[in-house]
């Protein structure tokens, strides 16, 4: 007996199900997948937070409320850090381009963007101060100060994944060309 729910090659018409619709273009979405470095760092931070919560339980059983509350607060901050780390990156929709950082978020409307291009320049390796030669996606605004580099091929999402960086840069350029008009 075949297990149709486990196979991707089944016929949708035979099962009576419809194909998955395209996602709504007005919703904010990331035009690339998270990189293994970003996911790994967030997973380690969540593991550390779990150990902190276990230690808070042990401290609470020992009877010191001050130590418990400090440990729970630090664990909560660690969890918030890891969740924000996973949220960081570039997001696009028909409304514009959004750059989510660790502490700040900046949204640009497509009409404010003059051009998105890929350039060769020194970039930061994994966001650290060490610089290496690489590629970066850069955007030129119609007015105002130049925007900092959006993506680099040596960032947490694209280190060692050059083909995915090029695909993400192409997708960003396509979104800009489609929605700028």
DSSP strand count: 6
Question: Overall mean pLDDT score?
Answer: 82
Strand content: 15-25%
How far is the first residue's CA from the last residue's CA?
A: 53 Å
Shape: elongated
The largest sheet is:
3 strands, antiparallel
Order of helices and strands: HHHEEEEEEH
Rg from Cα = 22 Å
In which range does the helix fraction lie? 40-55%
What is the number of helical segments per DSSP (H or I, 4+ residues)? 4
Strand order of the largest sheet: 1-2-3
- Computed structural class: alpha+beta
Identify low-pLDDT runs.
none
Describe the structure using short key phrases.
alpha+beta, three-stranded antiparallel β-sheet, 6 strands, 40% helix, 181 residues
What does this structure look like?
This protein has 181 residues and is an alpha+beta fold. It is 40% helix and 22% strand. It contains four helices and six strands; from the N terminus they run αααββββββα. It has helices at 12-15, 36-62, 65-87, 162-180; strands at residues 89-93, 96-100, 105-109, 113-124, 131-141, 151-152. A hairpin with a 4-residue loop joins strand 2 (96-100) and strand 3. Helix 2 (36-62) runs antiparallel to helix 3 (65-87). The longest helix is centred in the N-terminal third of the chain and has 27 residues, at 36-62. It starts with 11 loop residues before the first helix and ends with a helix. The mean pLDDT is 82.
In short:
With 181 residues, the protein is α+β, with helices and mostly antiparallel strands.
